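COURSE: Structural Biology Practicum
ASSIGNMENT: Worksheet 4, Part C
STUDENT ID: 0417
INSTRUCTIONS: Below are two proteins. For each, the amino acid sequence is given first, followed by its structure token string. Answer the questions at the end about the second protein only.

PROTEIN I
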Amino acid sequence: MMVPATAVAGAIVFGMSNGAIAASFNVSGQTFKVGASKLVGKGFKQYGGIATEKDGTQHPVAVSEIATASLYNLCQSVDASLPGVPIVLTINAGGRGKPAEASGMLIEMDSLEGDAEFKKIDIGRDASDLNSHAKQGAFGQSADEVTITGLKQVARSTSAGTFKLTGLKMKINIGKDAKECF
């Protein structure tokens, strides 16, 4: 079931439903990993969707929206290896008790793991009631609040109205140091 922890995506819905923000963009075709010790979000919505590459290749995804999110000990990694040369780009933020903060997040993901707690959750809603770009009659769910501990997510895209990365550290890791977040 997609319920346990598909977080980090949200208030962008208002802008999308009013045509102010594009609902999607061409994805690269490459996934990336996002981990966090804890995500606390308000205004959670989730439904199915399609991520499309520039060449038209389509990938079924779980779409999660969160109006506002706090991410503790955030790690993002992308495998950028060349033949025979392991290379991983990592971004870290939100440590030392000062979380990374996001608003209006929309995430298209392949998978999500973690321990999730939802407050005031509605499961089985019509997805088009959650986002005008979602397919009418498709499965959707929403919750006032979500907390996910031990977040491990494999995503294809993330968009946000704002994304404040407190304590940002970005690094290219090569060879034996080329390790992803998880």
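PROTEIN II
(use this one for the questions)
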Amino acid sequence: MRLRNIRRKLEDGQRRYRSNKRRCEDGPNPDKEEEDGSGTTEWINLMKRLRPSTDNISSIKAAMQKTFTWRRSWIAKHSPSLSEIFEEYPHFLDMPTLLDTEFGKMFEGKGDLFLRRWEATIIPKLKAIAIMETGDLASLKDMENQNEDEKCYTMLVVLTHLLPPVAMSRCSVKFALTFLVDFVPAGSSIASLCDDCSSQTNQPQLICVGNLRAAAKQHVIVGKSDRITVPLEEGLTSAVDKLFKLYWVCNLAYPCQLSSVFCFFEHIYDMPLSTSRKAKVLKLSSKVKASQFTA
């Protein structure tokens, strides 16, 4: 009893057995954030060294899952450039489906809303609203003979007319749309898409290589200022979906010429509208909701 009472009066540093036992239980406990960061760095280094082969896809996806919280915090706090993000996480480039996964974790349950709604619901309603407001039936009448990519592009034109650029941008509707989708001749190399020094956009955009009616066309996300290209093996609707997700995954500002159009996309994804200029978007959104027209 005397020894026990003496031990109670000892300083923590003098209680060798208890101190050693705590270290053993807790493990080597430096700063926990530093420990987590070290583990994350190991996963990131692993990803950089794995080629996107069939054998490695599951490991890459697991590594992206493990580093999700770290990545979102890094992007939010430090606002890295597009090239810096893709240098750290290169598989966003060669596995664009990771943009879907990342966006789906950021906005649970909203990742497939654009693909579900755009062609089946939004296009026929926008078409009906455009005819009712402008009476321009002729330009929309030929949609029945268009393929899916042409219909998508036609409705992007309609949407840009309904939500035109703000006056201060001094930008025509036709020119504004090039900040979302632009075209280059068939046969153009993907590497050459970043060489256009005359381009006035610093934000990522879609480039269609070839004609929308051609079977051999290809869509590419291009960030010219960062010299980034992301080839996509899908149609225009899916490409627009990928581009929108890239803006959110990489924490990028919308091109000011199309801020209202991108804001309307937020409505399709059931996201809170982020732009301050949303009066026209809210008005159009309410018309779409109230519309009884179907495909």
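ANSWER KEY EXCERPT:
Q1: Residues 12-35 have pLDDT under 50 and may be disordered.
Q2: The longest strand covers residues 218-223.
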